[in-house]
Amino acid sequence: MQINQFLILSAFLFCTGIYGVLARRNGVLVLMSVELMLNAVNINLVAFAAFNHSVSGQVFALFVITIAAAEVGVGLAIVLLIYRNLRSPDLDHVDQLKG
Amino acid sequence: MNPHIDYHALAPEIVLSATIVVVLVADLLFPDRDRWQTSRIATIGVLGALIPVLTLAADGTDRSMFGGAYVVDNYALVFKGLFLVATYVTILLSSDYIAEGDYYQGEFWFLLLTSVLGMVAMASARDLISIFVALETISVPTFVLAGWRKHDTRSNEASIKYYLIGVLSSAVMLYGMSLIYGVTNSTLLTDISSKAGNLTGSMDNLFIVAVFLTLAGFAFKVSAVPFHFWAPDTYEGAPTPVTAFLSVASKAGGFVALLTIVYVGFYPSGHSWQPVLWGLAAASMTIGNLTALRQTNIIRMLAYSSIAQGGFILVPFAVAGDSGPAAKSALEAVVIYLLIYAAMNLGAFAVVIAVARRTRSAEIRTFAGLGQWSPALAVLLSFFLFSLAGIPPLAGWFAKFVMFRAVLDAHTSAAAVIGVIAAVNSVIALFYYAGVARQMWFREPAIEDRRPLRVPPALNAAIAVCAATVLVIGVYPQPFAKLGELARIARF
Fold first, then answer.
1. Treating both helix axes as pointing N-terminal to C-terminal, what angle do B298-319 and B270-292 enclose, rounded to 10 degrees?
2. Bond before B393 cis per omega within 30 degrees
3. CB B150 within 8 A of CB B238
4. pTM metric for this prediction
5. Domain count along chain B
6. Which domains can be identified in chain A, with CATH numbers?
């Protein structure tokens, strides 16, 4: 079994996700980009698990899927809150505090 | 096959989980005017969870479960104790703040306790999966806590910034962990450690990249420079008791994860983690302190100060790989520094919360003349700030002392350089801590109402606990140093 194509796919997905998080201004699209990054991790884990014939990678992937769902649930709630208060999902409008 | 479950070892987690359920149900069943009772249930739960920690400590045997993925030893117990006591103090300093706001209460305690459950689990986690699950259990409730004042757009902003950086860092960390799993074919830290020392060629390079990504994820959690951008904004926008919790308990949770993963997992491959942590330590101390100098808001100042303190805690990490004795004293230094930092930082935040009850502001100039209208609070805040600066006889000096001892034990030029950077930064830090003290003692009061401030009993108790800890450890640190020696990881 070749593992390279899986790793390249996952690296590509991960970079797409990072680009999305940095470049997108809409809160919902940022959340989708984060999902992309987490799915890149899942591809990695499952590919390594199959390649090395060990099961813990698949277990890890299941945990990542579960927790990603919880994280995105919380994230959507926060974006919804911002939409209610500011009437816009655009994260550029969230700039009252200056880092 | 049934896995063997040691209920005594899991008792703190079980007590906390039960309390979480009870708090949630009580909030649903109690009528509005009795909702404040949920804070009592939370207090009882946290103190109840301390009991099995003490009995386990008295018992003294190391208990290992789930194939070594979950270990209860002295190291885990010291941190479980720290997290539970820090949470107790957080409950004390937030109960009046929460009861006086016009927001719901039960959810606050539910989220706080869930985050603490993650921390208590983190102290025992010895596997990439359990570390990841514990870390997310710590973080996800705090994203919601930061945005708890949900009609306040500043609180919303604190929450979304913290959330985005938090999930981004988790994703980066997970990518690193997936590569570590690929290289070592195990998620168990002890297995990773036995393979990490013997890697060669491209596998070693891949391992270095994987460790870098994983550490970058943790650096976000402990707000180390250059991954600190969320901290000042989140600290300023979140409710102040939540900020106190984030800057102490949540940060300590990140450091415990870092300690475990470096000492149990990556240790044999020193060239992969040591330079990264050296850089993070030097940058956090310098940038944190220099930016803190310019702040006019005390919460933002404490945010940058906590970034700088995080840098000081990272210093022993930077020298831990140099020799056996250095590894041992570095571990002790991090444990002791975290315990002392928790007491002094919580104390400083408690006083800020007390003063803000009158001034309704966190600007440093509103602290002008505090020494005239509320001398006791001014004395205590000076105490905590000078302790953070590391001035004897307050506990901060002992934290700095053990840190420098770890640096001296290392005997390398890299250690000498980081030691000098830390020393220079200790001096810089004194300027902004003393700046607040100058406002309090040498300026005329800026507010009209100069009657002495009445502080609610719970907040008073929180300040008293922190002040007593800071004083006692500062004057008589020997028994406390024993605690640091106790918190050993098997190999060191």
1. 150
2. yes
3. no
4. 0.93
5. 1
6. 8-89 (1.10.287.3510)
Whether residue B430 is contained in a domain is answered as yes
**What one-character-per-residue DSSP string does B112-141 give?**
HHHHHHHHHHHHHB-BHHHHHHHHHHHHHH
Q: Can you tell me the ipTM of this complex?
A: 0.95
Residues of B in contact with A75 (CB under 8 A): 143, 163, 167
Question: Could B232 and A57 be called an inter-chain contact, meaning their C-beta atoms sit closer than 8 Å?
Answer: no
3-class SS shares of chain A: helix, strand, coil, % to 5: 80, 0, 15
Tell me which chain A residue has its CA closest to the CA of residue B141.
Answer: A74
Look at residue B350 and tell me if it is in a domain: yes
pLDDT of chain B, 492 residues: tens digit per residue: 566 788 888 999 999 999 999 999 988 888 877 777 888 899 999 999 999 999 998 887 888 888 888 999 989 999 999 999 999 999 998 888 887 776 666 788 999 999 999 999 999 999 999 999 999 999 999 999 998 888 888 888 899 999 998 999 999 999 999 999 999 999 999 889 888 888 888 888 999 999 999 999 899 889 998 888 889 999 998 989 999 999 998 899 999 999 999 988 888 888 888 899 999 999 999 999 999 999 899 999 999 999 999 999 999 988 888 777 888 889 989 999 999 999 999 999 999 999 888 888 888 888 888 888 888 899 999 989 999 998 888 888 999 999 999 998 888 888 899 999 999 999 999 999 998 899 888 888 877 777 778 888 899 999 999 999 999 998 888 888 888 888 777 666
- B217, burial (CB in 10 Å: exposed 0-12, middle 13-18, buried 19+): buried
Cα–Cα distance for residue pair B370/B352, rounded to 1 Å: 11
Residues of B in contact with A45 (CB under 8 A): 178, 181
**Nearest to residue B13, comparing CAs of B53, B43, B73, B54?**
B53
For residue B468, the enclosing domain spans 269-492
B128 part of a folded domain? no
- Which positions in chain A have a beta carbon within 8 angstroms of at least one beta carbon in chain B? 14, 17-18, 21, 27, 30, 34, 37-38, 40-41, 44-45, 47-48, 51-52, 54, 56-57, 59-60, 63-64, 67, 70-71, 74-75, 77-79, 81-82, 85-86, 91, 94-99
| 8 Å CB contact of B129 and A56 | yes
d(CA A32, CA B3) in angstroms, rounded, equals 38
Residue B226 maps to a domain: no
- Of B255, B256, B254, B356, nearest to B302 by C-alpha is B356
User: For chain B, which residues lie within 8 Å of any Cβ of chain A, measuring from their own Cβ?
Assistant: 128-129, 132-133, 136, 140, 143-144, 147, 150-151, 153-154, 156-161, 163-164, 167-168, 170-172, 174-175, 177-179, 181-182, 185-188, 229-230, 232-233, 236-237
Calculate Rg over the CA atoms of chain A: 17
Of B104, B115, B94, which Cα lies nearest the Cα of B151?
A: B104
Kind plus residue range of the DSSP H or E element containing B70: strand B70-72
Quick check: bond before B226 cis, omega within 30?
A: yes
